[in-house]
Amino acid sequence: MSRLSYTYRGLIVPVLTPFSNNGSLNLDVIPKYATYLAKKGIKGILVNGTNGEGMSMSVAERKLVAETWIEAVKETKQHLMVQVGGAPLPDVIELAKHASGLRVDSILCLPELYFKPTTPKQLIEYLEIIGKAAPNTPLLYYHIPVMTNVNIHMGQFLESIGDKIPSFVGIKFTSANLEEGAQALRADNGKYTIFLGNNQLINAAYTLGIDSFILSSINVFPELVLDLLAVCKNGDMLKAKDMQEKLSSAVIAIMKHSNRVQAMKIAMALLTDIDVGLSRASSKSISSEIVETMIKDLTNSGYQPNIKYY
Asked: What is the pLDDT of residues 255-271, one digit of tens each?
């Protein structure tokens, strides 16, 4: 089998999964969510990742979320990537087959999280299994060592793949190690797509040649991220530095709170018309003190939170 082509570049937003107050899925929010992002100019969607709380859902729930998004993007014409990892291997295989059957545009996969791979060879062997389950769908690896504690060097990993996984096309690189990221970008003569997953290093990564990003901040600040990327493309790195600092300060105001997904959901309710409810990992609503602090910090950063939400 020849290697699959993969041409998508630019921004992808790791969307938040909507839950009701009782913790059940609130799928009715998704079409509005997709339209909101499309109107802002965001052309790529990632579901069931870290921000999407994929690892907090059952296989059946993850399938429902993917099915609802595939219907939504039929209207908005957005690229749809589905994260299938973070579960027992039979479930990951099932999720990969399901996503491929939906004809999603790409699949993202975490490593095995219990019998963690420690060498490129072990990681390749795991991803080979996933690739065989969905041979006709481009496959990317999700590198997020701060969460998985899988610390395989991505440059070495990508250099080792060769033709072992015909569907393999790239990685989501969620790390601050841009030296490693640059090596991944150059691996095998630049064969692979590298999506940076770090909100605070967009301008620095762009100078190294990384032009594609999967960023949680796009949920709340799509215009700022798009403008920052446009300034980077135009080569005005001083202006890009200022815009990056503005984005970083806003992200810090949100992410400094303990449950980052919950905090991002709160920020989205404060700054947009999309309410995705609470994080499933949170057994109770976020404290009023945290909300008040976030409102104050966002206001000081130049935003106007919708305080009537709370």
From this structure: 887 688 999 999 999 99
